[in-house]
Amino acid sequence: MELVEPSVEYKDSFIEAVKEYKSEAESEPIRSYRNLSIQGLEADFESFVERERSHAEGKNQQEGYVPQTEFWLVDGGEYIGHVRVRQRLTEHLLQIGGHIGYDIRPGKRGKGYGNKILALGLQKAREMGIEKVRITCDVDNVPSRKIIEKNGGVLDSEIPNPETGVNKARFWIENK
Ligand SMILES: CC(C)(COP(=O)(O)OP(=O)(O)OC[C@H]1O[C@@H](n2cnc3c(N)ncnc32)[C@H](O)[C@@H]1OP(=O)(O)O)[C@@H](O)C(=O)NCCC(=O)NCCS
């Protein structure tokens, strides 16, 4: 199991993962991958991969986003999930988003991959010089909270998140 840069090598299992996101219950949070076109990915996966990689240079991102480096967790040659390391904090990231975001594909959840993706993501953040990591989760996201605590997260505070109506739990992780 390892983190790799987005690569065309994982096309088939990545597309399977997108199908899993699309069939998730409507009550699940809307994830960007759910909106990807299977047809588009089948036709030109290389452009998709290039776009994902270009975010590390701050390209092809929403207004106000800082450069973020994306890695894919792969196991046995298959796409399992992704982690994004934001290269610096904005006020919004400090309050709500944090340095690191992660997601395990629906079909692979509950198998320990979440704990592993954050551990490996923290190593990448260390290599990128991020010695103190801000990390957050919704207060009702039980698995994510366990993952953060298992990886050394110390609760700082919980604040209302007007964007969702669900409070955010905010942690720091010493990452030297
Ligand atoms: C949160 C997420 C990454 C967890 O991934 P995962 O691979 O299922 O996590 P793990 O299997 O490593 O489980 C982590 C812990 O949560 C527990 N857990 C897993 N699913 C659970 C559930 N539905 N309810 C309660 N606890 C759960 C596990 O037992 C484990 O605890 P332990 O280490 O004490 O045994 C995954 O659910 C996901 O991608 N969710 C959508 C995106 C998201 O919420 N990302 C985090 C944003 S902050």
Automatic annotation (TrEMBL):
N-acetyltransferase domain span: 16-176
Matching InterPro entries: Acyl_CoA_acyltransferase (IPR016181), GNAT_dom (IPR000182)
Domain of life: Bacteria
GO MF terms held by the record: acyltransferase activity, transferring groups other than amino-acyl groups
Entry-linked PANTHER family: ACETYLTRANSFERASE (PTHR39173:SF1)
Protein name per the record: N-acetyltransferase domain-containing protein
Organism: Candidatus Kaiserbacteria bacterium RIFCSPLOWO2_01_FULL_54_20
Taxon lineage: Bacteria, Candidatus Kaiseribacteriota
